[in-house]
Design brief:
Layout lengths: L1 H16 L15 E4 L25 H10 L2 H12 L11 H33 L2 E6 L2 E6 L8 E4 L5 E7 L4 E5 L1 H4 L4 E5 L2 H4 L6 H4 L2 E5 L11 E5 L6 E5 L4 E2 L4 E2 L4 E7 L5 H4 L10 H28 L5 H11 L7 H19 L7 E2 L11 E6 L6 E11 L4 E2 L4 H17 L13 H14 L4 E4 L23 E4 L3 H12 L3 E5 L3 E5 L5 E10 L7 E8 L5 E7 L1 H4 L9 H10 L3 E10 L1 H16 L4 H12 L4 E12 L3 H10 L3 E5 L4 H10 L8 E4 L6 H12 L4 E6 H21 L2 E5 L3 H14 L3 E6 L5 H6 L2 E5 L6 H5 L2 E3 L4 H41 L10 H8 L4 H5 L9 H6 L2 H6 L7 H25 L4 H23 L5 H17 L9 H4 L2 H28 L3 H6 L1
Parallel strand pairs: 15-27, 15-31, 27-30, 28-29, 29-30, 31-32, 32-33
Antiparallel strand pairs: 1-8, 2-3, 2-4, 4-13, 5-11, 5-13, 6-7, 6-12, 8-9, 9-10, 14-33, 16-17, 16-26, 18-19, 20-21, 21-22, 22-23, 23-24, 24-25, 25-26
Helix pairs in contact: 2-4, 4-11, 9-10, 9-26, 11-26, 12-13, 13-14, 17-18, 21-22, 22-23, 26-31, 26-32, 31-32, 31-35, 32-33, 32-35
Cofactor: Mg(2+)
GO cellular component, one term: plasma membrane
Catalytic activity: ATP + H2O + phospholipidSide 1 = ADP + phosphate + phospholipidSide 2
Length: about 1050
C-alpha cells in the first residue's frame, strides 16, 4: 500500500510539479515495454500522460520561480536589502513607503507580465491537448482527447499525436507519411503494416486476437526502431520483427487514407518531445550590460560613503554612519530602471504587433525585443522557411531545343501527333536508325518521364463511404479531379504532374504494372519487370518495363548529372546545360533509355537473381550486375524543376547580408538540394566559390579536410551532419573558427538536436548574438536554444511559431522586424536606461554636496514625498516618452541596412557613453546645489525649494536635449509633468514656503541656476553635431 502511494505521489510530482529547466528532480528511468493490443490496463508500468507542456512554471513553482528570476539580478537584490534595512530603527531614513512602494510596483508589474505569458502558454497547450482522435474499442469507435490517449490504445489515425505501431491500413497494406514536423524532410516515407494484422478480415477482429508488441525503451534516434510483434492465440505463435518501417512517429501526418495503430509511447517519451530541449529563460544582452553598469555604480556608492565617513574622521559609531550614507546615496542605483525598461519592452512589443507592414506578427516573449537589434548570426531552416516547398516543372532540354514555361503547348502538339498515328497503324518492324524528328524525341522524352519514377496515383473513396465491408472497387472515383499522387520525393510528383499537364497521364500503378492515358484517351499498359530505387550513393534510379502492346522491353534511367554523364552516350551539351540550369536555381535530372532484346533481359535477370542470393558482398555484386546494363544509354532529355522560393527571399537575404548578419542554413534535406537552394536564394552570391566538405568518418580524414578548407578564401561552406559530428568531436574549436569566417554556411542532413548544438557552439565560440528561424517541429530545439527565436506559421503547422519568441507569417517580414523594430528597440532602451541612471546620479551628487557643506551630516536633503514624486510623477512621463524617439525614419532604416551594422558593436550603451552621463550628472548636480546654497538667504527651506525646482526643470530640459525626433506625446508629457509639479506646490507646504515660491526672486534664482546647468550642454551638443555628426544624420539631412 505504502509503495503504491509513494509511486502515485512521485508520478504526480513528475507530471505537475517538476518545473521546466530543473530536470534533475526525480527523473523516471526509461525501460523497454510490452504493450497488449487494445488493452491499456494490462500495462504493468505507469507511462506519462500524452499531453504537451510548454509552461515554465505551475501553481506551486510560479511565485518562487518568478521571484528567483527577479532577484537573480544584482539591481533588484540590492533594493530588497536596502528596503529591508528600513525596519531597523537606527538606520531608518525618511518614510518606509519611499523604499517599499517602488519595489512593490516593480514586482507587481513583473509578476503580472509573467502570469499573462504563462496563461497564454497554458491556453495554447490546452488547445493542442484537447484535439479529438478516434479510438477503436470493443464497442466500436469513440472520440478521445489527445491527452487521454494511453499506451495500448488502438487509434484510427489521420495525423499522429502519439507514437504508434502501424497495424493495418483500411484499403492497402502500405501508406505514405509526411515527417516534415519531425526531421524537416518533405519527401514522403513509405510505411508497411504488420502483415499478421493486415490479413484479418474486419476491424473488430483486432480485439478477438491475443497479441502484444515488445518495444525498445524510448530514445532520441528518429531513424531507427526495434521491436517484435507476437500473436499468442494460434499454434504455433506468430512472431514478426518490427522495424522503423512499421512505425508512425508522433508529429507526423498520414498523407492519405486511414491507418489503425497501437500506441507505444506517449507524452514525454515520444521522439518529437525527446528531441526538443527545455525552454530556457532568455535574458537580453542589454539587460546583462545594464547589470554590469549597476555593479559599477554600487562600487561608486560604497566608495563615496567611505570617503564621507573618512572626512568625518570616523567619529562615534562610524559603521552606523557608513550604513546611513549608503542609504542616503542609494539613489545612485535607480530602482525605476527596471520599471522603465520593462514598460519599454511592453511598448516595443505592442508596436511590433501593431505594425501594418508586417501583419500577423506576434511577440510571445516580451523580455527580449532589444535582442533583435544586436544579431550577428541568423540560422535558418530551408524547407518552408526559405522555400515554399512546392515543386514546379520549369524546363525540358533535348540538346538542340529547349522548352520553358511559355512553350509547353508545343509539347502538347508534338504528343498529339504520334499517339493519333499509333492508334491507326499496326505495330511494324523497328525502323532503321535515322536522325529522329523533334516530335519523336519529345514523345520519347515525355514517355520516359511518365514511366521512370516511383509515384503512385491515389483515388480517395467517394464521400459518404465509411466502414470497410461495403467498400469495393466500383465505389472508387477514378475522375481526374479525385486523383492525388504519392511519392517519396516532391520532385517526382512534379514530373508526373507535368506529364499529365501535357497530355500523358499516369492513371494507375501497382507493384507489377502501370497504366498511362494518351491525349486521345487510349490506355497504354506497361509491365514493371525491375525497379532500381534511388539511393544517396548511386544518385540515380531505374526501371525496366515491357510495353504490353508491342512487347518491347525498355530500360529507363534518371539521375543527377554527376552520376549520369559517364553512363550516357557522348554528347557536347549536357554539362553546359546542367550548369546553366543550376545557376537559375533549378534542380536537374538527366533522363536516358536503352532498348533491350528478350535475350538480353533474360540474361540480365538470371545474373541479377543470382547476385541477390549471394551471401558475401551482396550489395556490391548487385550493383555490378545493374552497372552492366548502364552502358552507352541514349540520352533523352534534361529536366529542370524549381522549388519555389518564398516571396522576396532574395532581397531579404541581401538586406540581412548588408546589415552585417552572417546567414547559416541548417536543413535536414539532401546536399544537392541544399546547395541548389543556397544558390537560387542568393544565400551564396554568384561570384563566390562553394567548398563542399567531403564526408569524413575519423580523426585523420577530418584533419585533412579541415586543412584543405583552411587554404580556401572567401568561399561558402557546405557540410553534412555526419561530417560535422566527426569534426566537432575532434576539432571543435578549429571548425567553428573557420566556419565563422565564411560568408555563408550550409549544413545539410542535420537532426533537430544537431541544429540546437550548432547554435550553442556559435554562442560559446563566437560570443555573438544568434537568431534562429524555422517553421517546423524539427526547428523547435534550435529556436529555443538561440538568443532570439523566430517562428514562421507555415504549411508545416504551428509548432515552431508557438515555441518561438517572435512569430511571423512570412520570411520577408524578418527584414523589417530587425532593421526597424530591432534597431529602434535597442537604441531607445539604451537611451532610456542611461537617462534613468543620470536621474539617480544627479540627485546623489546634490546629496553629497549638501552633506559635505553641512559638516558631513548623514541627513537627507529631500524628505518623503519629494523623493517619491521626483522618481515618478514629476519626471516619469517625459523620461518614458524616450521609447517613442527615433533617429531615422523606418523607410531609411530599410533602405540603408548598413545602419544596423553599427549596433552590433554595442556603442549605444557602453562604459564610454555611461562615463559621459556620469560627468554630466556630477556637473549638473554640483551647479544646482552650489547655486542654491549661494543664492539662499536666511532659511534652509529656501535651499530645498530653489534646488528642487531647478532640478525638475533641468530634468525636463535634458529629456528635450536627448530627443532626436519629436513626437506629439513627448511634448504632452513635458507639459503635463511641469503642470503636475506646479499644481502640487500648493499641497507641499511642509517642504516649501508658499509665500516665498510666489515671489519674483524665487523665479529668477531658479531660472539662473537652470540656465547655468543646461546651456553648456546644449552648446556642446550643437558643436558635436556640426563637427562629427553620427552616421544616421547624414541620411536625414
Amino acid at each position: 500500500m505504502s509503495e503504491n502511494l509513494y509511486h502515485w505521489i512521485s508520478e504526480w510530482y513528475i507530471e505537475n510539479c517538476q518545473p521546466h529547466g530543473y530536470p534533475f528532480l526525480l527523473i523516471r528511468e526509461l525501460k523497454a515495454r510490452t504493450v497488449w493490443l487494445g488493452y491499456p490496463e494490462k500495462c504493468e508500468e505507469k507511462h506519462p500522460r500524452n499531453s504537451i507542456k510548454n509552461q515554465k512554471y505551475n501553481v506551486f513553482t510560479f511565485i518562487p520561480g518568478v521571484l528567483y528570476e527577479q532577484f537573480k539580478f544584482f539591481l533588484n537584490l540590492y533594493f530588497l536589502v536596502v528596503s529591508c534595512s528600513q525596519f531597523v530603527p537606527a538606520l531608518k531614513i525618511g518614510y518606509l513607503y519611499t523604499y517599499w512602494a517602488p519595489l512593490g510596483f516593480v514586482l507587481a508589474v513583473t509578476i503580472m507580465r509573467e502570469a499573462i505569458d504563462e496563461f497564454r502558454r497554458f491556453q495554447r497547450d490546452k488547445e493542442v491537448n484537447s484535439q479529438l482522435y478516434s479510438k477503436l474499442t470493443v464497442r466500436g469507435k469513440v472520440q478521445v482527447k489527445s491527452s487521454d490517449i494511453q499506451v495500448g490504445d488502438l487509434i484510427i489515425v489521420e495525423k499522429v499525436d502519439a507514437f504508434l505501431i502501424y497495424f493495418r491500413h483500411v484499403y492497402a497494406s502500405s501508406c505514405f507519411i509526411r515527417t516534415d514536423q519531425l526531421d524537416g524532410e518533405t519527401d514522403w516515407k513509405l510505411k508497411v503494416a504488420v502483415s499478421c494484422t493486415q490479413r484479418l478480415p474486419a476491424l473488430g477482429d483486432l480485439f478477438s486476437i491475443s497479441a502484444y508488441v515488445y518495444a525498445q525503451k524510448p530514445q532520441l534516434d528518429i531513424h531507427s526502431f526495434e521491436g517484435t510483434f507476437t500473436r499468442e492465440d494460434c499454434d504455433p505463435p506468430i512472431h514478426e520483427s518490427l522495424s522503423i518501417e512499421n512505425t508512425l512517429w508522433a508529429s507526423t501526418i498520414v498523407a492519405s487514407g486511414t491507418v489503425i495503430g497501437v500506441v507505444i509511447y506517449t507524452g514525454k517519451e515520444t521522439r518529437s518531445v525527446m528531441n526538443t530541449s527545455n525552454p530556457k529563460n532568455k535574458v537580453g544582452l542589454l539587460d546583462l550590460e545594464l547589470n554590469q553598469l549597476t555593479k559599477a555604480l554600487f562600487v561608486a556608492l560604497v566608495a563615496l560613503s567611505v570617503v564621507m565617513v573618512t572626512l568625518q574622521g570616523f567619529v562615534g559609531p562610524w559603521y552606523r554612519n557608513l550604513f546611513r550614507f549608503l542609504l542616503l546615496f542609494s539613489y545612485i542605483i535607480p530602482i525605476s530602471l527596471r520599471v522603465n525598461l520593462d514598460m519599454g519592452k511592453a511598448a516595443y512589443g505592442w508596436m511590433i504587433m501593431k505594425d501594418e507592414s508586417i501583419p500577423g506578427t506576434v511577440v510571445r516573449t516580451s523580455t527580449i525585443p532589444e535582442e533583435l537589434g544586436r544579431l550577428v548570426y541568423l540560422l535558418t531552416d530551408k524547407t518552408g522557411t526559405l522555400t515554399q516547398n512546392e515543386m514546379v516543372f520549369k524546363r525540358l532540354h533535348l540538346g538542340t531545343v529547349s522548352y520553358g514555361a511559355d512553350t509547353m503547348d508545343e509539347i502538347q502538339n508534338h504528343l498529339r501527333n504520334p499517339y493519333s498515328q499509333v492508334s491507326e497503324r499496326p505495330p511494324t518492324q523497328p525502323t532503321p536508325k535515322v536522325r529522329k524528328s523533334v516530335s519523336s524525341r519529345v514523345h520519347e522524352a515525355v514517355k520516359a518521364i511518365a514511366l521512370c519514377h516511383n509515384v503512385t496515383p491515389v483515388y480517395e473513396p467517394r464521400a459518404g463511404m465509411t466502414g470497410e465491408a461495403e467498400y469495393t472497387e466500383a465505389d472508387q472515383d477514378f475522375s481526374d479531379g479525385n486523383r492525388t499522387y504519392q511519392a517519396a520525393s516532391p520532385d517526382e510528383v512534379a514530373l508526373v504532374q507535368w506529364t499529365e499537364s501535357v497530355g500523358l497521364t499516369l492513371v494507375s500503378r501497382d507493384l507489377t504494372s502501370m497504366q498511362l492515358r494518351t491525349p486521345s484517351g487510349q490506355i497504354l499498359t506497361y509491365s514493371i519487370l525491375q525497379m532500381f530505387p534511388f539511393t544517396s550513393e548511386s544518385k540515380r534510379m531505374g526501371v525496366i518495363v515491357r510495353d504490353e502492346s508491342t512487347t518491347e522491353i525498355m530500360f529507363y534511367m534518371k539521375g543527377a548529372d554527376v552520376a549520369m554523364s559517364s553512363i550516357v552516350q557522348y554528347n557536347d551539351w549536357l554539362e553546359e546545360e546542367c550548369g546553366n540550369m543550376a545557376r537559375e536555381g533549378l534542380r536537374t535530372l538527366v533522363v536516358a533509355k536503352r532498348a533491350l532484346t528478350e535475350e538480353q533481359y533474360q540474361d540480365f535477370e538470371s545474373r541479377y537473381s543470382q547476385a541477390k542470393l549471394s551471401i558475401h558482398d551482396r550489395a556490391l555484386k548487385v550493383a555490378a550486375v545493374v552497372e552492366s546494363l548502364e552502358r552507352e544509354m541514349e540520352l533523352l532529355c534534361l529536366t529542370g524543376v524549381e522549388d519555389q522560393l518564398q516571396a522576396d527571399v532574395r532581397p531579404t537575404l541581401e538586406m540581412l547580408r548588408n546589415a552585417g548578419i552572417k546567414i547559416w542554413m541548417l536543413t535536414g534535406d539532401k546536399l544537392e538540394t541544399a546547395t541548389c537552394i543556397a544558390k537560387s536564394s542568393h544565400l551564396v552570391s554568384r561570384t563566390q566559390d562553394i567548398h563542399i566538405f567531403r564526408p569524413v568518418t575519423n580523426r585523420g580524414e577530418a584533419h585533412l579536410e579541415l586543412n584543405a578548407f583552411r587554404r580556401k578564401h572567401d568561399c561558402a561552406l557546405v557540410i553534412s551532419g555526419d561530417s560535422l559530428e566527426v569534426c566537432l568531436k575532434y576539432y571543435e574549436h578549429e571548425l567553428v573558427e573557420l566556419a565563422c569566417q565564411c560568408p555563408a554556411v550550409v549544413c545539410c542532413r542535420c537532426s533537430p538536436t544537431q541544429k540546437a548544438h550548432i547554435v550553442k557552439l556559435l554562442q560559446q565560440h563566437a560570443g555573438r548574438r544568434t537568431c534562429a528561424i524555422g517553421d517546423g517541429g524539427n526547428d523547435v530545439s534550435m529556436i529555443q536554444a538561440a538568443d532570439c527565436g523566430i517562428g514562421i506559421e507555415g504549411k508545416e503547422g504551428r509548432q515552431a511559431s508557438l515555441a518561438a519568441d517572435f512569430s511571423i507569417t512570412q520570411f520577408k517580414h524578418i527584414g523589417r522586424l530587425l532593421m526597424v523594430h530591432g534597431r529602434s528597440s535597442y537604441k531607445r532602451s539604451a537611451a532610456l536606461g542611461q537617462f534613468v541612471m543620470h536621474r539617480g546620479l544627479i540627485i546623489s551628487t546634490m546629496q553629497a554636496v549638501f552633506s559635505s557643506v553641512f559638516y558631513f551630516a548623514s541627513v537627507p536633503l529631500y524628505q518623503g514625498f519629494l523623493m517619491v514624486g521626483y522618481a515618478t510623477l514629476y519626471t516619469m512621463f517625459p523620461v518614458f516618452s524616450l521609447v517613442l524617439d527615433q533617429d531615422v525614419k523606418p523607410e531609411m532604416a530599410m533602405l540603408y541596412p548598413e545602419l544596423y551594422k553599427d549596433l552590433t558593436k554595442g556603442r549605444s550603451l557602453s562604459f564610454k557613453t555611461f562615463l559621459v552621463w556620469v560627468l554630466i550628472s556630477i556637473y549638473q548636480g554640483g551647479i544646482l546645489m552650489y547655486g542654491a546654497l549661494l543664492l539662499f538667504e536666511s532659511e534652509f527651506v529656501h535651499v530645498v525649494a530653489i534646488s528642487f525646482t531647478a532640478l525638475i526643470l533641468t530634468e525636463l530640459l535634458m529629456v528635450a536635449l536627448t530627443v532626436r525626433t519629436w513626437h506629439w506625446l513627448m511634448a504632452v508629457a513635458e507639459v503635463l509633468s511641469l503642470g503636475c509639479y506646479v499644481a502640487s506646490l500648493a499641497f507641499l507646504n511642509e517642504y516649501f514656503d508658499v509665500a516665498f515660491i510666489t515671489t519674483v526672486t524665487f523665479v529668477w534664482k531658479v531660472s539662473a541656476i537652470t540656465v547655468v546647468s543646461c546651456l553648456p550642454l546644449y552648446v556642446l551638443k550643437y558643436l558635436k553635431r556640426k563637427l562629427s555628426p553620427p552616421s544616421y544624420s547624414k541620411l536625414t539631412s
